[in-house]
Amino acid sequence: MKRVRFFLISFCLSALYANAQVGQPYIHDPSTIAECDGKYYTFGTGGGGLISEDGWSWHGGAERPGGGAAPDVMKIGDRYLIIFGATGGGLFGGHNGRILTMWNKTLDPKSPDFHFTTPVEVASSDGMEDCDAIDPSLLLDPTTGRLWATYGTYFGSIRLIELDPKTGERVKGNVEKDIAIDCEASALIYRDGWYYLLGTHGTCCDGVNSTYNIVVGRSRSVEGPYLDNVGRDMLKGGGRMVIAAGHRVCGPGHFGRTVIDEGVEVMSCHYEADFERSGRSVLGIRPLLWRNGWPVAGDPFLGGTFSGQGSECGVAVEIESERRGYSLELAVDFVRIPQERERFWQMDLTKPLKSIPNQSLTDVAGTWPEGNIPVRCSDYMFRPHQRWTITPVAEAGGYLGGPYYKIVIAGTDRALAATADLELVTVPQFSGADEQLWRIEQLTDGTFRIMPKRIPGHQELNKNYVIYSAADSTPTLAVYDFQSDNSKWNIRNR
Predict the structure, then answer these.
(1) Sign of the CA dihedral 487, 490, 491, 494?
(2) d(CA 107, CA 88)
(3) Is 330 helix (H, G, I), strand (E, B) or coil?
(4) Number of CB atoms found within 10 A of residue 355's CB
(5) Residue range 235-281, pLDDT digits in tens
(6) Pairing verdict, β 312-313 and 402-403
(7) Mean pLDDT on 399-407
(8) 13, 112, 358, 399 — which has fewest CB within 10 A?
(9) How far apart, in whole angstroms, are the C-alpha atoms of residue 224 and residue 207?
(10) With b meaning 16 or more CB within 10 Å and e meaning fewer, what string describes 129-163?
(11) How far is CA 240 from CA 162, 193, 265, 358, 446, in A?
């Protein structure tokens, strides 16, 4: 019986997170996600792209002339630079490709300022040389201000060139340099003194049979050599895994990095096939973690979801402070569990063992106050007042990479809420009010920050205040600080 119940819960959880973003996130070879006038944009092969008002629900409508394949986009100053491959990739039977750049003041096709400049060629391949000019990406080096682009596919090498960040044109006299093989759809990022080269390995464009995955190497110089975690040069086929198939999506490719806040990063990609969406290619956004100096995709947050029959299901979790390891709980009286005690020095080892059940909600709920109940932190003891169900609220929208959630005491509708004086409380019933909706983001170290959607009395969305451990047993709301464990929480199913 327990085994069956566990299976059903696991199935419910996978139903939401097998998929990527919601809406119509259908795209192939997406660019790095760019923000423009409060909206998010990504461009793909074929000239179009996606737009999102909140970063969670996506729809078509982005425009990019020139067709071609695998663009990238970057904001430089007050303009957006687009780079894309005009041909190549074996399209129409050849590998003679061209890499082009163009500018726009805005990405909003409805803006009067929306106008792309004439594309300028910055690289090419003749179809015979050991390179295929396609799949470009951009890096503006934060240490030098120099602008770099990579491009290339399995047909030959991945190449590096330098562009002028003011014009988007090739730096005069610049000679391309080979930096990797055995991958395509490359991307460069910089972090903490290291340059990281990410490449897409495996096969594409075969739906649920695609084997795309993303690998990485790093170097102290933008020009390489890029070595993986065991010292293999990417120019000789090396690469450490960043993300592969999982959660019923396969073929992740075309890496993009977005830094939301200090310690809050996401990676974007496409999945070649979403098993829950007819095997279509979809946009994916995952937490980006950093482990021992290496990027790795975080797992989708398993908070709970709704079953196909419309009934709510989920698992009870502990919300644990990184500061001390104490559990977030209702501030109610501790109720002891009845137990037949044996003195450890007088145990009768012939007596049969008994399983002691966990304390149930019905054992204790009658002792709780009926109105609002504050919260605190204390030792975790498997008790009902310490176990929460975290469930996405479909109609509440979302943020870059995730939906808003409700957090309730497991088995009840008693919901965690923010107050106007920056404190925490639980209310008897979840109403869907913004102060009862929570943004939950995995940080680069694997912990989580938990933020109310809006503080009562404030019109704007909350982007600063998180659940904060002001003392070992005192949770409150305070300004997020990645450098402090007070801002960080672990969410454990145990």
Answers:
(1) negative
(2) 26
(3) strand
(4) 4
(5) 999 999 999 999 999 999 999 999 999 999 999 999 999 999 999 99
(6) unpaired
(7) 95
(8) 112
(9) 33
(10) eebbbbbbbbbbeeeeeebbbbbbbbbbbbbbbbb
(11) 25, 19, 19, 43, 19
The mean pLDDT of 111-116, rounded to a whole number, is: 97
The amino acid sitting at 215 is V
Tens-place pLDDT, residues 415-445: 999 999 999 999 999 999 999 999 999 999 9
Are the CB atoms for 380 and 374 separated by under 8 Å? no
- CA dist list (Å): 425 to 101, 248, 373, 474: 53, 37, 6, 12
In the block, tokens 């993009």 appear at 256
pTM score over 0.85: yes
Q: How would you class 171 by CB atoms within 10 Å of its CB: exposed for 0-12, middle for 13-18, buried for 19 or more?
A: middle
Q: In terms of Cα–Cα distance, which of 209, 141, 214 is closest to 180?
A: 214
Sequence-separated contacts (24+) of 475-478 with Cβ below 8 Å: 475/321, 475/328, 475/375, 475/376, 475/377, 475/424, 476/422, 476/423, 476/424, 477/418, 477/422, 477/423, 477/424, 477/452, 478/422
Distance separating alpha carbons of residues 187 and 165, to the nearest angstrom? 17
Which sign does the torsion angle of CA 75, 79, 83, 86 carry? positive
Q: What is the DSSP string of 75-144?
A: EETTEEEEEEESS-TTGGG----EEEEEEES-S-TTSTT--PPPPEEEEE--SSSSB-----EEEE-TTT
CA distance 377 to 379: 7
Q: Which helix (H) or strand (E) holds 491?
A: strand 489-492
Is 408's pLDDT higher than 80? yes
Phi and psi at residue 238, to the nearest 5°: -75, 170
β-strands 327-330, 147-151: how paired?
Answer: unpaired
Q: What is the mean pLDDT of residues 293-319?
A: 68
Token reading at 27 = 């795209």
Instruction: Provide the 10 A C-beta neighbour count for residue 398.
Output: 23
Residues 321, 252: Cα–Cα separation, whole Å: 33
**Alpha carbon distance 200, 156 (integer Å):** 14
For the chain, report the end-to-end CA distance as a whole number of angstroms. Answer: 19
Whole-angstrom distance, CA of residue 277 vs CA of residue 58: 15
Evaluate whether 129 touches 88 at the Cβ level (below 8 Å): no
How far is Cα 41 from Cα 33, in angstroms, rounded to an integer? 6
**Strand, coil or helix: 92:** helix
For 18-22, 245-249, 390-394, 490-494, which range has the lowest pLDDT when averaged over its residues? Answer: 18-22
Nearest-angstrom CA–CA distance, 322 and 338: 31
* 491 vs 316: CA distance, rounded Å: 10
Say what the alpha-carbon torsion angle 228, 231, 233, 238 is, to the nearest 10 degrees: -50
Nearest of 388, 330, 389 to residue 364 by alpha carbon: 330
CA triplet 290, 439, 242: central angle to 5 degrees? 25
